[in-house]
Amino acid sequence: MKTIAIDFETANEQRGSACSVGLAWIEDGQVTRVEERLIRPRDMRFSGMNIAIHGIRPEHVEDSPEFPEVMDEFLEDFRGATMIAHNAAFDFSVWRASLDLYRQSYPELTYLCSLKMAQRIWPHFLSHRLNLIAEHLGLRFVHHNAAEDAAVCAAAAIEMARAVKAATVAAIPAVIGMRPGKLTSGGYEPCTCRKA
Q1: Whole-angstrom distance, CA of residue 195 vs CA of residue 178
Q2: Do residues 88 and 117 lie in contact, with contact meaning Cβ atoms separated by under 8 Å?
Q3: Which residues are CB-neighbours of 109 under 8 A, at least 6 positions away?
Q4: How many Å apart are CA 67 and CA 102, to the nearest integer?
Q5: What distance in Å separates the CA atoms of residue 72 and residue 31, rounded to the nearest whole number?
Q6: Distance (Å, whole) CA 46 – CA 58
Q7: Strand 82-85 with 109-113, pairing
Q8: Tens digit of pLDDT for each residue in 56-72?
Q9: Which long-range contacts link 168-174 to residues 24+ away (Cβ below 8 Å)?
Q10: Measured between alpha carbons, how far is 166 from 169 in angstroms, rounded to an integer?
Q11: Which UniProt keywords apply (predicted)?
Q12: SS3 of the chain
């Protein structure tokens, strides 16, 4: 059972403007691999606000491949995987918008939202933002670096599985009343939680 955390950074306010993707693989209760790829957005329009968040500028990505080529490298990894993202609604809207931009079909996969999981599992936290969860768990990282965000999302998910005594990260939804989201060639379903 493959579980992969994913995080996107965008060049501007358009969801189809991914300029970086980070991936972190979870196997046997630990993060075993972390990758980051820079992406050249199709229109190369970077907003100052986005640059201020992640520090990626047009010159950093001008020689990088565009979205389809970057994601194709990982297609075999995604096949049959459970994906996870912190605030999955954002990351999966970036993925969908980018695929739509290039008129590509969606991969078939299931995904979880670690933000929704954290809200359910650690309701006493004042905030469930990734940097504050990392702080609570004693994890140091560079926030808004896609690879580091993905790795911390993965590490936090592993801790959540331990907290609810789930055998794997993919088993958490059954314990907490979450319905995983789905991407399919026919569209998508959001990740949701039953009302507590």
Answers
A1: 9
A2: no
A3: 78, 79, 80, 81, 82, 83, 182, 183
A4: 8
A5: 22
A6: 7
A7: parallel
A8: 999 999 999 999 999 99
A9: 168/1, 168/3, 168/29, 169/3, 169/26, 169/82, 169/84, 169/112, 170/1, 170/3, 170/82, 170/112, 172/112, 172/117, 172/121, 173/112
A10: 7
A11: Exonuclease, Hydrolase, Nuclease
A12: CCEEEEEEEECCCCCCCEEEEEEEEEECCEEEEEEEEECCCCCCCCCHHHHHHHCCCHHHHCCCCCHHHHHHCCHHHHCCCEEEECCHHHHHHHHHHHHHHCCCCCCCEEEEEHHHHHHHHCCCCCCCCHHHHHHHHCCCCCCCCHHHHHHHHHHHHHHHHHHCCCCCHHHHHHHHCEECEEEECCEEECCEECCC
Which tens digits make up the pLDDT trace of 149-182? Answer: 999 999 999 999 999 999 999 999 999 999 999 9
The token duo for 84 is: 């996870």
CA distance 94 to 16: 6
Q: Which residue has the tokens 């957005």?
A: 41
- Taking alpha carbons only, the member of 44, 32, 103, 98 closest to residue 71 is 98
Each residue's pLDDT tens digit, 96-111? 999 999 999 999 999 9
How many residues would you count in the chain? 196
- Two tokens at 116? 């929704």
